[in-house]
Structure formats: C-alpha cells, structure tokens
TrEMBL record:
GO terms for cellular component: nucleus. It holds the Pfam family DDE_Tnp_4. The lineage of its organism: Eukaryota, Viridiplantae, Streptophyta, Embryophyta, Tracheophyta. Its cofactor is a divalent metal cation. It is found in: Nucleus. Residues 18-100 form the DDE Tnp4 domain. This is Harbinger transposase-derived nuclease domain-containing protein. It comes from the Eukaryota. Keywords: Hydrolase, Metal-binding, Nuclease, Nucleus. InterPro entries: HARBI1-like, HARBI1_dom. Its main location: nucleus. Coiled coil: none annotated. Belongs to the HARBI1 family.
Amino acid sequence: MTPESSVKREALQRPELLFPHLTADKYYVVDVGYPNTKGYLTPYKGQTIRYHIPEFQRGQSSAMHAPRGPKETFNYHHSSLRNIIERAFGVLKARWALLRDMHVNYTYEH
C-alpha cells in the first residue's frame, strides 16, 4: 500500500476529519500513487504510455508530440489539469503565507 492510499484510507475512515465525500458526478484528480477507484481519476500506466507534459514535447516533429491513442490523450489532459491545479495551489500559497507554512501531520497505522 502506498503512502497516498494510506492517507486516503485514513481520511475516509475517520469521520472527525470531515473529508468531503464525492457525489456520483464528481471526481478527485490524483496521481499514480492512488488506486484507480470510484471517484478517483488516475492516469493510465504502462511502459509505452506517456503521461508527463515534457514527454509530449520531445521529438522533432509535431506528429511525435501528439498523443498516440485514447489512453495517451486521456493522460495528456489529466497531466495538463494536474499542472493547472498545482499552479493554482502555488498562487494561493504565494498570496497567503498561512497556507505555505501550514504543517499537517497525518499519522496512520500500517
């Protein structure tokens, strides 16, 4: 079990943490450290499937840049969305030092 999935499991099992439960039409966009379960969108995995934006930018022609197939297309959009989310958190942390200096320690049992 990955640390990410352990934190997720802990958050879901402890109602006092008030972790927001998803409705049927909502999803969390998560990285490959999370299991692909209902309500959690993870990218496709595989040796030949690209995910990170720089992987799509390598190559000499625009044809080499384009996603190859539906899995890479999904991964490209997933990675683009995660980049936007991470930049938004960066902007918020730059604006409000409280968020930047916040240290939350989650403990979990193995």
